[in-house]
Amino acid sequence: MFRECVAKFSKNKLLAIFAFIFLFVLTRFPYLGADEINPDGVNWHYRSQQFVVGLKNGDFEKTYQHYHPGVTLMWISGIPIEIYKQVMGVNSYNQYNFLMFNLVAKVSVILAQFVLTLIILLLLSKIVGFRIAYLTVSLFSLEPFFVGNSRLYHMDVLFTLFLFISLLFSWLALRRFTWKKGFLAGIFLSLSFLTKSIGIGGLIFVLVFSTTYYFHKKDAKTLSKYTISVLGSFVLATFLFFPALWVRPFFYLSEILSESERVGVRKGHAQILLGEYTENAGFLFYPLVVIMKVTPFILAGVLMYLLKTFKFLPRLIMNTKNKYSSVYLYLLIFYLGYFAVMMFPSKKIDRYMLPLYPFLALTAVYGFVHFYNSLQKAASKRIFASFTILAVSFFYAIPLISLFPYYFTYTSPVFGPPANANLVIAQKPFGIAVPALKDYILEKYGDEPKLGFIDTKPMKAIYPNSKVADIRVSGTSDYDLLILGVNEEIPEKVLRSGTKFRKNSSLYVNGLEYWRIYVKEN
Question: Which whole-number Å values give the CA distances from 75 to 69, 278, 287, 311, 414, in the listed order?
Fold first, then answer.
């Protein structure tokens, strides 16, 4: 009887994992590569090439390409791209092969995300059980905005997964210390930092929390072991995976931190918030991002959990034993800190809230499970389960089908049509549907007309460079068509030029007039 139960349980888990893999593949790979060419991705193609050149030639300083620093992204995508070059006999990018290189890069990144997601499922299962872990991983992995970002050639989803894994390993090491757990926590904290410099905050949190934990336990011996294992493996992995540090470690580390402070904290980032242009979107921006970019399904689960635990939360936090024995409180302290810290820098981008998604999903699952368990009648439980299935269909299946493949444009139905949401936080073009825009232009306007953009990088990747001009710099004689992305305005330079442009057509993406095409008036 016991063997039959174990076999049935294992079979059910296996079927659940296969279902997750199917949905993961279905939402990531179809139409990948040609869905978008984000300007940052164009930069990372170049940086990854230089990274590999540095490795091949022993010019290790070339492995420092950016302050982020994006080292993991360059490892993950740079080597597969180099292999593709060697196999296909292609030496460099051009307008004809860029989309294939883009596909190779994206597939590499998504495969890495897949492996990291399975690691999260395994670790979280050890802590909260398979059911909670599976539901949590499924929820955040299928969030439309999360899916949209996972399809980008970018770092935010990688950073989110590395960071969450490092927190889980650090928690497991706290609960029952072993050198292996401590080393793995430090390695993944390093990978978080090597993905985005803000990841240094994860290391700081882990070291501060562990110090207070072992101080409370009066266990200096284990604290020293924990600190040596985490900090030692962090330093070792950082130097191992970042060859630029082999040459000038202090210079490049200081460069990363100083540039992060200059660009990330002081420089700001253009946003249109509630119809007003700003370089610093203020404290209102990220709360609005969470409401707009997270599905109401998860937010409802979070609300259920908060209502269930609100009156007990102060007692839990003040209770020293509970404070150091709950993984949820451990994660809560970190992610509240992350959210608070991210409120202060002037550079604010909606993607920077992606690290919250795993935690919000875990909170939502707790909320739904606690509410379900609180129901006394079997009929009430059946009704709630049926309602939950309908809600999942509405909040996940519908947008994942209707927004395909441009999930990056997702906004919560709470805000109504996309045009309404666009009035709250303006959508960024970010290279979405640029390949489709190229095809549309060639079909409607003939053989490669000269084009003018505000951000030229995405189109230049797949169009003759000499025929793509920056309308903020070039004269109006340098382009035949003036093309504006969503929420972009005609620059003053063009308005003062004396040349009149008339909107001729538009390319719509998920209900938004995403690309507007202007022609010169005769």
Answer: 12, 35, 34, 47, 40
Domain ranges within the chain, ordered by starting residue: 2-368+394-398, 434-520
Model confidence, pTM = 0.94
pLDDT computed for residue 3 by the predictor: 54
For residue range 381-408, list pLDDT tens digits in order: 899 889 988 999 999 999 999 999 999 9
Angle between helices 378-392 and 357-374 (to 10 degrees): 150
Give 501's strand partners. Answer: 520
Maximum distance among all alpha carbons in the chain?
86
Q: Hey, what are 345's tokens?
A: 């820098």
* Cis previous bond, 314, omega within 30: no
CB under 8 A, 24+ apart: contacts of 44-47 = 44/70, 44/73, 44/74, 44/77, 44/105, 44/153, 44/154, 45/81, 45/93, 45/98, 45/101, 45/102, 45/105, 45/153, 45/461, 47/74
Which distant-in-sequence residues (6+ apart) come within 8 Å of 400 by Cβ? 27, 142, 144, 147, 407
Residue with tokens 């600190």: 227
